């Protein structure tokens, strides 16, 4: 892809982002959480039914923004109760680098039984009002956090502004997830889908799943990872994989 094609493609993505953000604002106003919560939980009940979820020992999950995005709070309680090893995002201090790690949230299953409090309620929030695991060092300045390494996460839940029926994803536009997945997968994309870690599961509301007549798909570059599955409140899409 040459420079000009890349720039056209980026512009198309920006236009799509604007459209989807406007649609979400209209369909899920910030002051009316109930439809968003109901739809979010429909997505997660589909996730929890999957054998891929049931066999996963470790899960990478995002902590949702306060509005305009699938809400993960109830699902996180379930994942902890199910005894999975849970990893959550921590974006780097340097926002320009758009770097992200996933940090182990070491919480005992019993701690999720309380109806209100969850382990991340006391964490500091980042610029998008998302709680982030604090950086903790020992007396010698060594990191105490468990930072996910390739192979550590079996199933990664991927947020997105939109997805399509090819498993293509439109993110927020900074490349955080693509960079993170490339750190985790390394060259593993040459493996059979079943052996690839992590399994990529995109989640979105039906209004963010783009398959209307005349729509020719979310454009992707070499950096963009294709999801293995996409779940919405009304469908579970398994993306047919060709090699690589
Ligand atoms: N819950 C959650 N956590 C996440 C993500 C996500 O999508 N959801 N991310 C997924 O990558 C990363 C954060 N990515 C983000 C990247 C850019 C913007 C952003 O620039 N928002 C603009 C919106 C307006 C605009 O640019 O047009 C803003 O800050 O106002 C937000 C999140 C890491 N953690
Ligand atoms: N693995 C990578 N290495 C280097 N640069 C990357 C990588 N992945 C994406 N980028 C760059 O990051 C920028 C944003 O990428 P893109 O438009 O795909 O973001 P996005 O996936 O929508 O965002 P996000 O993951 O934050 O939700 C682009 O300039 C892209 O070239």
TrEMBL record:
Q: Which InterPro entries match?
A: FTHF_cligase (IPR002698), FTHF_cligase-like_sf (IPR024185), NagB/RpiA_transferase-like (IPR037171)
**In the Enzyme Commission scheme, what number(s) does this protein have?**
6.3.3.2
Q: Where does ATP bind?
A: 169-177
Q: Which GO terms describe its molecular function?
A: 5-formyltetrahydrofolate cyclo-ligase activity; ATP binding
Q: Name one Pfam family in it.
A: 5-FTHF_cyc-lig
Q: Which domain of life is it from?
A: Eukaryota
Positions that bind substrate: 63, 69
Supply the alphabetized keyword list.
ATP-binding, Nucleotide-binding
Catalysed reaction, written as an equation = (6S)-5-formyl-5,6,7,8-tetrahydrofolate + ATP = (6R)-5,10-methenyltetrahydrofolate + ADP + phosphate
Family membership, please give it: Belongs to the 5-formyltetrahydrofolate cyclo-ligase family.
User: By what name is this protein known?
Assistant: 5-formyltetrahydrofolate cyclo-ligase
């Amino acid at each position: 892809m040459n420079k000009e094609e890349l720039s056209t493609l980026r512009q198309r993505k920006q236009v799509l982002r604007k459209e989807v953000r406007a649609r979400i604002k209209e369909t899920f106003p910030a002051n009316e959480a109930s439809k968003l919560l109901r739809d979010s939980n429909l997505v997660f009940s589909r996730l929890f039914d999957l054998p891929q979820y049931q066999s996963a020992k470790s899960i990478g999950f995002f902590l949702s923004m306060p509005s305009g995005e699938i809400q993960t709070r109830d699902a996180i309680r379930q994942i902890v109760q199910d005894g999975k090893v849970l990893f959550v995002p921590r974006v780097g201090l340097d926002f320009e680098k758009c770097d992200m790690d996933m940090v182990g949230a070491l919480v005992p299953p019993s701690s999720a039984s309380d109806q209100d409090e969850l382990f991340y309620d006391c964490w500091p929030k980042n610029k998008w009002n998302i709680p982030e695991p604090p950086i903790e060092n020992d007396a010698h300045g060594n990191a105490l956090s468990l930072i996910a390494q390739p192979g550590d996460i079996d199933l990664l839940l991927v947020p997105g502004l939109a997805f399509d029926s090819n498993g293509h994803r439109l993110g927020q536009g900074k490349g955080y997830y693509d960079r993170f997945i490339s750190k985790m997968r390394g060259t593993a994309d040459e493996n059979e889908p079943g052996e690839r870690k992590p399994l990529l599961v995109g989640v979105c509301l039906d209004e963010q799943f783009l398959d209307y007549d005349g729509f020719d798909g979310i454009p992707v570059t070499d950096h963009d990872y294709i999801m293995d599955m996409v779940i919405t409140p009304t469908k579970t899409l398994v993306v047919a994989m060709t090699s690589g």
